[in-house]
Write a structure and sequence with these properties.
Radius of gyration: 18 Å
Largest sheet: 7 strands, mixed
Strand order of the largest sheet: 3-2-1-4-5-7-6
CATH superfamily of one domain: Vaccinia Virus protein VP39
Order of helices and strands: HEHEHEEHEHHEHHHE
Number of strands: 7
Number of helices: 9
CATH class of one domain: Alpha Beta
Structural class: alpha/beta
Distance between the termini: 26 Å
Strand content: 15-25%
């Protein structure tokens, strides 16, 4: 799945959660000075930013299948080698990097095991390869208020619970099946304070990801009903929302 939306639209939607998540993920991957690192499915650059801060732009590469995201990441991080590519066919030689990460991407890959396997291929022996996915199965992703409200209005809608890697066991299985060693996983949580309902709700109106798709598909009347349900549940703000992701890493 690709995201054919501008980078700033994605940032307003998910960046407020993915940026702090990426800091914890980079810690888990033990990114340190002197390494060469790859961000797979970089989007506008939440994890890329962490890598650049830790090792410098010239040592960072990033890929994403979405042309708008590639453009946004290049603009934000001059010096980073940003390429348009799917995870399942990375445009790098074997053992190019010391570490490779995919933040909030595995569940959108056409072939998650193949994509992580490619990350293993381009990482030097002993280097960490890792991935994060929100706890979709446990309804602890940032979008959980939306999906609960959708379930009230459209009980038949599947939501995101069944996406691959959306549970801890599912993510660990993908990483192991990709051929990584010494696999381990942790939970990473992020709490964001939303100053108002409008600040939280507006990014959902731009068609970003599965959540944006379902909002758009409801039509004007359906969106109005959905907004009413959400305002009743969340209030006018400010309010805090906590999201939990699973992160797994293994050695190449």
């Amino acid at each position: 799945m690709t995201f054919d939306v501008p980078g700033d639209a994605y940032d307003r939607f998910m960046g407020r959660y993915s940026r702090p998540l990426s800091a914890g993920f980079a810690d888990l991957l033990e990114v340190t000075e002197g390494q060469w690192a790859l961000d797979v499915g970089c989007g506008p650059g939440a994890l890329t930013e962490q890598l650049v801060e830790r090792i410098g732009a010239e040592r960072v590469s990033a890929v994403d299948p979405s042309a708008p995201f590639v453009e946004a990441c290049r603009e934000r991080f001059p010096g980073v080698d940003v390429r348009q590519s799917a995870a399942e066919s990375l445009p790098f030689d074997d053992a190019t990097f010391d570490v490779a990460g995919a933040c909030l991407v595995v569940h959108f890959m056409a072939d998650p095991v193949g994509g992580v396997g490619e990350m293993r291929r381009v990482t030097r022996r002993g280097g960490w390869v890792g991935a994060t996915v929100w706890d979709l199965a446990g309804s602890r992703a940032p979008m959980w208020p939306l999906w609960e409200a959708v379930a009230e209005l459209r009980p038949e809608h599947p939501g995101e619970r069944e996406f691959p890697g959306g549970s801890q066991d599912g993510l660990v299985a993908i990483v192991r099946d990709a051929g990584l060693r010494d696999v381990e996983s942790v939970e990473l949580s992020v709490t964001v304070t939303h100053p108002s309902f409008e600040e939280w709700w507006e990014p959902y109106l731009h068609g970003v990801g599965p959540a944006g798709d379902v909002v758009a598909a409801l039509g004007p009347d359906g969106r109005e009903r959905l907004e009413e349900v959400l305002r009743r549940r969340l209030g006018e703000g400010p309010f805090d929302l906590t999201a939990v992701a699973y992160a797994a890493r293994g050695r190449a």
